[in-house]
Predict the structure.
Amino acid sequence: MILAAGKGTRVQPITHVIPKPMIPILQKPVMEFLLELLREHNFKEIMVNVSHLAEEIENYFRDGQRFGVEIAYSFEGRIEDGELIGDALGSAGGLKKIQDFQSFFDETFVVLCGDALVDLDLTQAVKKNISRKELLPA
């Protein structure tokens, strides 16, 4: 899951018009680097929670096909008079909202902040997490 619902208040005024995960670094949105990392480590199914300026993220990444992944979106907010009103649930709230998307999640999944550049061996991190889990008492 990529957390991408926040308003980005610490980097305003740019986030009045661009959601933080869409801020460009080397001519592409920071979130695109995360998709590349996930794909490199064979994560193909990605859930993105969106709220503030959700349409900017969804219009750019769409279903993820051009990035070699499958993307689904979880909108956090409401509709008033036909207009989407963002109302982010926070990191834990976003995860709680999507916990029933069983086609996307099993016992092991990765959560990344949509506005962070990450250089992590996700394959190794997941393997280490699973091996630790197997050591826990039943």
